[in-house]
Amino acid sequence: METIETPRKKRALSCIQSTGTPTLGNYLGALRNWVMLQDEFECAYAVADLHAITVRQEPAKLRQQINETFALLLAIGLDPEKSLLFVQSQVPEHAQLSWLLSCHTQFGELSRMTQFKDKSAKHADNINAGLFTYPVLMAADILLYQPDVVPVGADQKQHCELTRDIATRFNNLYANTFTIPEPYIMKTGARVCSLQEPTKKMSKSDENQNAFISLKDDPDTIMRKFRRAVTDSEAKVRYAEGKDGVNNLMEIYSAVTGKTLEAIEDEFTGKGYGDFKTAVGEAVALELKPIQERFTELMKDKAQLEALMKSGAEKASYVAGRTLGKAMKKLGFVILR
Ligand code: AQP
Q1: Whose C-alpha lies nearest to ligand 1, atom 12?
Q2: Is residue 315 one of the residues assigned to a domain?
Q3: Tens-place pLDDT, residues 171-221
Q4: Is residue 181 located within the same domain as residue 314?
Q5: How does DSSP assign 103-154, residue by residue?
Q6: Do 176 and 214 reside in the same domain of the chain?
Q7: Ligand 1: which of 19, 26, 55, 209 to mutate, judged by most atoms within 8 Å of the beta carbon?
Q8: What digits encode the pLDDT tens for the residues 324-334?
């Protein structure tokens, strides 16, 4: 008798570092898409706190950032009933697989990573081995959950490619162990830039507070930061080469309102940057308002937050443990039952 099997949903995995409060860049480039993907894919999402210590963190602040980032993931609409939601350091398999993969990654490959070059230039006094091997831990984060796609901002494409290379190498040496994942990059808002240096991406760890919009910024702060955003002297809202500041604001406005770049140019014909920046600020503040309200509620109930972390870590560890066991067995380690 023939049976019709329901095809399994594709799997997706993504992480966010707890290096600060997530920004509008994280939200538009990644987090907002994570929520939408929950119905289409079987999703796993993690707060990548182990990654955060590649640059010095103040322990109390790190703890708070982990809690807040986890709460923000819930506040934006990630549902622990639908998706696997967890904190990376609470699932030890990540560090374990990372070692196995380190031994299958070349020094030269890691040296070519642009994020390593950027971060080591930025933190010249602390170019630690973790900063260098960070992409291997990221590969472990991904491969443990056997995802088909990895939703990321355009800035993470290079790391995803390295993950694919490491996984392919491992599979070729020891037979199929890991699914080879595809990066999944959404078009609008894929790369949000700094409000102060619009050729650079917006980053939550930027020392200049005016360079980024944090998801916790209140409406006044949001308006002030947009008013101070770097533009140019043309005073014309149009999307063109060399107008990085304006292009960035237009892309943000487009991502938040759903308007096309042409429609935005029409809307602001004959108007100056002041009106435009006010409109962008208001649209962003409106988008963030419900998230901020839910976040405040969630942060009031620490016990509930911890319970959600615990069940997330348990479920994640079960899935991750199976992949880790498989990889160890293939490598020749003695597995105890
Ligand atoms: N500016 C951005 N525009 C679009 N997407 C972005 N992402 C980060 N910045 C932007 C995407 O957000 C997801 C989570 O990022 P992450 O925190 O894991 O790492 P990151 O890319 O290093 O983010 P930050 O904010 O720049 O952190 P710091 O300041 O610590 O380096 C990823 O999918 C990323 O693509």
Answers
A1: 26
A2: yes
A3: 999 999 999 999 887 665 568 999 999 999 999 989 999 999 999 999 999
A4: yes
A5: TTS-HHHHHT-HHHHHHHHHTTT---HHHHHHHHHHHHHHHTT--SEEE--G
A6: no
A7: 26
A8: 999 999 999 99
